[in-house]
Amino acid sequence: MNEQTAAPPPHRLDHEDALTHGTVIPVLGIRVTFESNDARVIEVVEEAFHAWHNVEHSPRLISEISARFRIHVETGDEAGGPHADIRIRAPDLPRTLLGTSRSMGIADAARREALLYTTSGLVHDTQHFRHNVLEVLTFGVLTRLDRMPLGAACITKGDTALLLTGADGSGRSTLAYAAARAGYAILAEERVTVQLEPRLRLWGTPGWLHLPADAVQHFEELKGREPDLIVRGSPRISIRTGSLDALPAMPVAQRAAVCVLAPAMPGEPTLETLDAAALQDAMIAGLDASADVFADSIADSIAVLAGHGGWRLRVGPDPHRALDHINAMFDALTDA
Q1: Considering the domain boundaries, does residue 266 fall inside one?
Q2: What is the pLDDT of residue 9?
Q3: One domain for residues 118 and 195
């Protein structure tokens, strides 16, 4: 009798479940179709991107192009600690690769598609999955489509917007949270995307703040809150901006002034005016390493944003004490 070689076990890619759950959201003004075999994924998609549904009421803001994101989930957990170790690579401008011990994903801007194979354990680590997987791959497609990412918080009052730029660690998120508690809306707290055609538009990432763990020392209501995700290697506390009544009416602004945050120093906060050239230099100096992949094109966006000059704010050790300067900048913008 001839021996028969046992067939290898089927690979996970050979028996994909049907993607029966889905939603379409105009993220950054580009319609993205999200599809999954797991209803929980679509719930997280809605949590992450629900603010962009408002754009549906302004069709002129929506691009003619569209994108697609397919997410396949299989039962299981990731290896390691409480939050999966996520590795991200951008080997070339159109593509972003993402991987964990048991998940893999790719965003391909040239095809306007993203694809993810992941575990139920990672999906149920909701904030970690939302911020570090779902948003990374979604923006990995969209930010190559005239949606230039810029590390900045953006606070608004009415139709007036103020970008807070500066290097990581300059206090953007903490100052944005203090501004939200003082009545400002938060269009973005760590990244805006700049659209130049057919006109300047600044798209935010509304819905969430991600505060460093040491922010609890400044805000009594945060005492006892534990970090629930990792952002660029640092523990962060996720806060829904809706809980602060700080969601803007629309996730986009069509003009904004710029303030560069300088590293905190002892003493009172200080504010100085910068002309266009000085502001442009300060914005470029504050770019983080992730901007390297956009080095050939981000300068154009910065030049447009810095064109009318702006400010440099040294926040100081207590973000509350910088709010008078935030108010003064908005007063100047309102009077302009």
Answers
A1: yes
A2: 41
A3: no
